[in-house]
Amino acid sequence: MSTIKKFEDLEIWQIAEKLSLKIFTESTIGEFYKDFRFKDQIRAASGSIMDNIAEGFERSSRLEFINFLGFAKGSCGEVKSQLHRAKDQQYITEDFFTELYESYDRLSANIAGFIGYLNRTSIKGQKFKDRN
After folding, report:
1. Of 28, 70, 92, 97, whose Cβ has the fewest other Cβ atoms within 10 Å?
2. What is the pTM assigned to this prediction?
């Protein structure tokens, strides 16, 4: 297995970026675009997933990374809830809702799996690698 040198190499970050772009693009259309507060809220929540993955990675500490992955996982739940609201307001179609909801559900599960892996590993991260 190769060493991950930058957060952009993480599959969970790559998926989060693609999903954030889908949210951004869809929220530029019709009534969704006109609901400024809600549009900004769902964009911020979807963007915070990739941002928290990046910030946690850059802290160079396994425990801090796990903490920020928890924030990212929480933001997945926030976006899933907001997708319900977008569907209820008819800002998005049922098909788009299902596609994105399932994608965020898988991303959340992948983040949880990565957290589990990090909890089981003895790797400390760059910040603490030389400490006993």
Report:
1. 28
2. 0.90
